[in-house]
Design goal:
Shape: globular
Helix content: 10-25%
Order of helices and strands: EEEEEHEEEEEHEHEHE
Structural class: alpha/beta
Distance between the termini: 5 Å
Length: 236
């Protein structure tokens, strides 16, 4: 399995038979092999998670599945996608089965907009399990009231309880330096709640140094990938 960091919260996961493209916003995409199935995920409509260039991927290719949060404008997407491709709009707390159950998509409710994705891809007797948070995070801010931050934490923990004890091969989780003193809290809770063989921080706004700071303060965390440059591919 290969994971390519495209930029911000955008990642490409490649297995033997599938490409999974999450929240593409920026970065150079590879040439996709036609024999592999391509599933494109968009967690919500914010500009830093949703780039309409994803619809250009359909040109010269058959059978892309687009999985889009329901807050994305349906009419616009339908106008941009060809009839030979599947367009699935999703909402929180649902389970969707794709490609004759080769892929199962579960959703959580974001604490900001849209959904988070839990994706299981089956290839023979092998299963690959992914978590992409989108903007599901503990968005606490110093300038907000205590009541607001407490409510945010309650909402975030409620969603995390839905994945308590789950195991993922790869998890993509926000680590946003703009939150200053609260920047680590969402990541900490995720790592306490679920397991992942590899955790990719995201949404750090071209400030990857926060990853090194986090790892220095959390030396017990051994499964986090210390991202540095966009476009790099990691093999597992």
């Amino acid at each position: 399995m290969k994971i390519t960091y495209l930029g911000h919260s955008g990642f490409l996961a490649e297995t033997k038979g599938h490409y999974l493209l999450f929240d593409y916003y920026t970065g150079k995409l590879p040439v996709f092999l036609p024999e592999k199935k391509l599933i494109v995920f968009v967690s919500h409509s914010h500009q830093d998670h949703y780039n309409k260039e994803i619809y250009a991927l359909q040109h010269g290719r058959q059978g892309i599945t687009y999985v889009l949060s329901k807050d994305i404008r349906r009419k616009q997407a339908e106008e941009l996608i060809g009839k030979e491709h599947e367009l699935l709009f999703v909402k929180a707390h649902e389970v969707y089965r794709l490609e004759e159950d080769e892929a199962v998509v579960e959703t959580l409710r974001s604490t900001d907009a849209g959904v988070a994705y839990l994706v299981t891809v089956s290839e023979g007797d092998k299963k690959y399990r992914f978590y992409h948070a989108g903007d599901l995070n503990l968005w606490k801010w110093a300038e907000e009231t205590k009541a607001h931050n407490n409510n945010m934490e309650a909402n975030f923990r409620r969603e995390m309880d839905r994945i308590r004890g789950r195991r993922f091969d790869i998890a993509f989780v926000p680590l946003d330096p703009r939150q200053e003193e609260f920047a680590f809290d969402g990541m900490d809770i995720f790592l306490e709640t679920a397991e992942a063989k590899a955790v990719f921080p995201m949404h750090f706004w071209k400030h990857p140094e926060i990853i090194r700071t986090y790892l220095a303060k959390r030396p017990q965390v051994k499964n986090m990938v210390s991202l540095r440059e966009e476009g790099r591919t990691y093999e597992f």
